[in-house]
Amino acid sequence: MTEQKANNEARRAILASVREHLAASAAADAVYAEGEPGGKMPASRIAPVMPQSEDPLIQRFRQALEAVVGNCLIVASESEAAEAVKQIIEQTGAQLVAISDAPLVRRVLEQTETSTTLLEDCVPPALFDCDLGITSAQWAVAETGTLVLESEAEQHRLVSLVPPIHVAIIEASRIRETLAEVLQSIGEQGKDEMSRTVTFITGPSRTSDIELTLAIGVHGPGELHVIVIQDEPVG
Fold first, then answer.
1. Lowest mean pLDDT segment, chosen from 17-31, 50-64, 120-134
2. Which of 1-15, 33-47, 170-184, 211-225 has the lowest mean pLDDT?
3. Closest among 203, 218, 234 to 33, alpha carbons compared
4. What is the pTM of this model?
5. What gap in Å lies between CA 119 and CA 149, rounded to an integer?
């Protein structure tokens, strides 16, 4: 009976600690969602002025992404995506940018006017010196705001994970309602074409490993910007 009582007390103490640290993480989320003390907005909440889509699937993805402190920009063309990339680079002050070998990324950056150094085929050690990484994404999940990146489609995994800021460019036609739909699309590619690694990204990196206190950007980028290129011009 004494042992049972001790176990119950330990359980109550653990649950109390969990509740306390969850409350602490909520405060941290508020800082990232509404701005830092003193009125300064974190860069992840600064967005270029771009038209918004009326497509419900795109809007649901945007809302879900912003709910996890990501930043979603909706543009009408690759040229507008190039302008969005330029503004993000200027607003974040990035000086060294790693880029993946995705055809979409290359097309957009060919139209991006910037004096920032762009690194293709960046070796892993050099990625730690980069301020920002730019990739595409093969899929996106509207209900959770999740990006899905396949390793066979582009050399991107470390570009999306190592620099402190990640910019992902995706075409609206690659957005699906649910994760199940994305997994089905991946499975339909066939065993020979299926990627060995599939990376799921939902908002900036966050962890509560240390005493259950929320920390942003410890195990990956602290900022995420997603540029969605619509299939049709914005009306």
1. 17-31
2. 33-47
3. 203
4. 0.73
5. 20
